[in-house]
Amino acid sequence: MEIVERISELRKIVAGEKKKGARIALVPTMGYLHRGHLTLVKQAKQDGNYVVMSIFVNPLQFGPNEDFARYPRDLERDAKLAEEAGVDLIFHPSVEEMYPQQNRTTVQVSELGDALCGLSRPTHFRGVTTVVSKLFHIVQPDRAYFGQKDFQQYLIIRQMVRDLNFPLEVIPVPIVREEDGLALSSRNVFLAPEQRQEAVVLSKSLIEAEKLIKQGERRVDRIEAYIRNKITQESSGEIDYVEVRSAENLVKPEVINESVVIALAVKFGTTRLIDNCIVEV
Amino acid sequence: MEIVERISELRKIVAGEKKKGARIALVPTMGYLHRGHLTLVKQAKQDGNYVVMSIFVNPLQFGPNEDFARYPRDLERDAKLAEEAGVDLIFHPSVEEMYPQQNRTTVQVSELGDALCGLSRPTHFRGVTTVVSKLFHIVQPDRAYFGQKDFQQYLIIRQMVRDLNFPLEVIPVPIVREEDGLALSSRNVFLAPEQRQEAVVLSKSLIEAEKLIKQGERRVDRIEAYIRNKITQESSGEIDYVEVRSAENLVKPEVINESVVIALAVKFGTTRLIDNCIVEV
Predict the structure, then answer these.
(1) What counts of helices (H) and strands (E) characterise chain B?
(2) Domain with B37 in it: what CATH number?
(3) Which one of A20, A177, A259, B109 has the fewest CB atoms closer than 10 angstroms to its CB?
(4) Measured between CB atoms, does A105 come within 8 Å of chain B?
């Protein structure tokens, strides 16, 4: 496995692999890998690709009061895990390599990015779509793999790829969880032990809400209220949002008569966690 | 020469050419070709490329009160001219092919697009950068050719390509003019005979302004006033703007001590013409 910091070098290697007939997969990450990322890699490997993993903590997608500076980083550990999982090449550019001059160009997806995480993080998705566009142009993958934990991000990237005709396939990969149900996240390391225990309420409330829908509940407000109550009663978590939305376009349904995503964001101290669950009806 | 309307077909043909080792050039146009467009083609051909010309009148870059509906179209004539000039393939998609679903994604370049044509056409450049991004992803050219008549557009595209790491080269081609100096434009056909005669004042005033700078005039307001006066006195044209700007980034200089573009837009009746001149100092 190679680790490359320069765009020009990355391009040369990828072009060589393409010439040999390889299909290129991109797994974009911000590093500090966990089993969620590694599942993306394994999926990409299983699909027969040459797997490029980007590790780049992208300043553009952090708000001014967010955790860009303290976002966890550990390249040595990441490289070991990535290699074991089957990554062929890590692309690990510096901020200067990615943004050598003042960046004036942004890629923006309207509507899909306005709700949910877009409300408390108004410039976040613009930062994501812009850096993902750059990575797509740098790596020129045939396929790109995104985890469904960031379900809104996945929908936005899918929309961007369709709207702008990016010549690649976006592949979603299901959430990976700890044994007790907590969705894996690089930010979990920030949780104090009590918070870590309390945070299990997120996945638990999603599972119970799913059960309610499967049992016939169709009222959006009932589902949302159920989850809110449970989180408030069983944890110190501060709710950012709990929302039932169309799993296709994030529009809020009148009643639940299509596949929906139940999505939530909750803060434990300064650590903001997200989770979601797709319910087919 | 082939004419292709479908994205999938275009991609197949281009992939085949690439496999044979061809370098792909894109000449994006809105059709109704004139010698300006054909000069782009000849340049692209001379550089040894397989030349794809797109002909697409892009609704996204026209404002609600602009001339999208009446923009001149004549594919048969265009095809003949394109073939003679050396185009290998015309990509002529329908609006539905380019925008099959509601388009939610836009690509936007800040600052460069705010002045000059961006003032009277506030959504124009966003429409241009978005459709050009789409065309870049569809055709995947190695090089793309843009005329310098739309100098602001050229700078914006160049900035977009740099910022987003599009894997291609943007090549500017000088303005082509009628014998009396009028810059070629598909919109020239809308000029009444008197307007056509009057419109020569645009290039004349640019030439004289260039001469003033070469003779030592360094005051921006003097140059702009000179051109405004000349146009007002010698024509019925209604000035949209006359501006001296940095040829690198369109910032207005205090005094002229770097290469500048003198750019102008003037309306003759309902027909808006643009022209410009780069002056190296």
Answers:
(1) 10, 10
(2) 3.40.50.620
(3) A20
(4) yes
Using a CB–CB cutoff of 8 Å, tell me whether A111 touches chain B: yes
Structure tokens at B20: 């044979």
Q: Which pLDDT does position A63 carry in this prediction?
A: 93
The structure tokens listed for B215 are 């003779």
Query: What is the spatial distance between Cα A44 and Cα A136, in angstroms, rounded to a whole number?
Result: 16
Same domain, yes or no: B161 and B220: no
Q: How wide is the angle at C-alpha A188 spanned by C-alphas A185 and A192, nearest 5°?
A: 170
What's chain B's average pLDDT? Answer: 96
Closest-CA distance of chain A to residue B123, Å: 14
Whether A107 sits inside 8 A of B137 (CB atoms) is: no
Q: Give backbone dihedrals phi and psi of A249, rounded to 5 degrees, phi first.
A: -140, 10
Looking at the domain assignment, is residue B65 inside a domain? yes
CA A37 to chain centre: 10
Per residue in A58-71, pLDDT (tens digit) is 999 999 889 999 99
A243: pLDDT confidence band, cut at 50, 70 and 90?
very high
pLDDT value for B141: 98
Contact A163 B111 (CB under 8 A): no
Same domain, B16 and B75: yes
Question: How does residue B220 score in pLDDT terms, banded at 50, 70 and 90?
Answer: very high
CA torsion angle A238 A240 A244 A245 (round to 10): -160
Gap from B164 CA to chain A (nearest CA, Å): 5
ipTM (interface predicted TM)? 0.95
| Cα–Cα distance measured from residue B276 to residue B281, given in angstroms and rounded to the nearest whole number | 16
The answer to whether A134 and B164 have CB atoms below 8 angstroms apart is yes
**Position A228: which residue type?**
R
Residue of A20, A60, A137, A139 to mutate for B, most B C-beta atoms under 10 A:
A137
Residues B19 and B134 in one domain: yes
Structure tokens at A216: 């016939």
The pLDDT, as a whole number, for residue B278 is 98
A-interface mutation test, from B139, B164, B248, B251, most A Cβ less than 10 A away: B164
For residue A179, is it within any domain? no
